[in-house]
Amino acid sequence: MHLRVLAGHDGSDGVRLASVITEGCLKELLGIAPEARAQLGDLIRRVRGDEAAFARVGTERLKDINWLNARRNEAVHFKGGGGSLRIDDAHDAAETVIALIRALGLLSDDELDAVRREASRAASAPASEAVLKLDRAPQRTELDDLLGVGSAVSVATIDGEVGQGHDHFARVILWRMRTGPKGQWRQLDVDWPAPSDAAGLRLAMLIATLVAEVGGDPRKLPPGDPTDDASRAAWDAALAGLHERLTAGRRRLWARHRIPWPHATDATLAAEYVRRVWEPAAEQATDRLVVTFEVARAERVGLPWLSRAWRRSRAERVAAGALVGAIQTGPWRADVRAEALPELGSVEVEDLARWLRHETRRSREDAERDAAQLIELTRGGRFDTVVKRIATLQPRARP
């Protein structure tokens, strides 16, 4: 039996692998043939009805397996792009499997340690082709420089129009986090509050979202505006508990914030959020905290000044520029470093031709011709559209 959960490409991948292994363990326990068609939910019910099997698994461990089955259903039936689960879920799923294997005596502690080491090496291997498609060289260089500095908190802004590969670059960040120093880490996906002129209310909503992400109770946060002098002390006291949760244990953390509709108040909101939440966390951090703000603004279309779409895109560009500037300039503590990564733009024809040569085995001439055609068909090389197109291409034999 091979435990490869830690080598999954995202949370959903890891949870699915953990579920398959758990099914195998329970079949072994119940004396069911490995090839028998029995899903995890059915096996859980059989364990409950088998007194000897239930005694070996135990009540608490069966609760963990029930949790794994629920996460597995989310991963299998999720309809959005990418995976709906986080790396944190994959880690917990792996721990659930390890505890079950140990309880059933299927592997010794030494064998489990060996498998852990093998999985860690696999998780740090070069990224898959899907991650490296049309890799963002300028952005990756800046990201590597940021992560290479020994700051307690690293903050990065990633700006670009909608459809220019924000999710793709997030996968690049995911890979870079894995190939850094060894150790466990967790990912938080923090929803950005809807546009509004009420900056204080939006800060309270953002903090409440983060509290829920780290397992706290947002209902225990104080009422009122966190930026108001009358309620600042109460909010600072509540934030102390949040800082402890963010830095608990020796696990690196990546907090990903996606900003789909840049607003004029976002610059003030982001700066105050970093100042109140992440700067104090730097004092207690025992491992790296990485905070990213992904700004996806409207595409610049329409007649300048005359069309509503053009005016909206211009307003969002101004708001995004203000947010990027506020994060980059701070000022921040010495152990907090902030950088603005280069703007995510369209694919260059040279980069696309190089990818076609390497990944589809086209000749130089064919690759350059096809790249030029793809750029024309994707409105000048819009990143997400290009990736969808090239995903359907088949390798060609070299002449």
Describe the structure.
The structure is a single chain. With about 400 residues, the protein is of the alpha/beta class. It folds into three domains: about 5-125; about 130-340, Rossmann fold, CATH 3.40.50; about 350-390, no CATH class. Helix content is about 55%, strand content about 10%. The chain has helices spanning about 10-30, 40-50, 50-55, 60-75, 85-105, 110-125, 130, 135-150, 165-180, 200-215, 230-245, 265-285, 310-330, 350-360, 365-375, 385-390, and strands at about 155-160, 185-190, 250-260, 290-295, 335-340. It has a five-stranded parallel β-sheet, with helices on both faces. It starts with 10 loop residues before the first helix and ends in a 9-residue tail after the last helix.
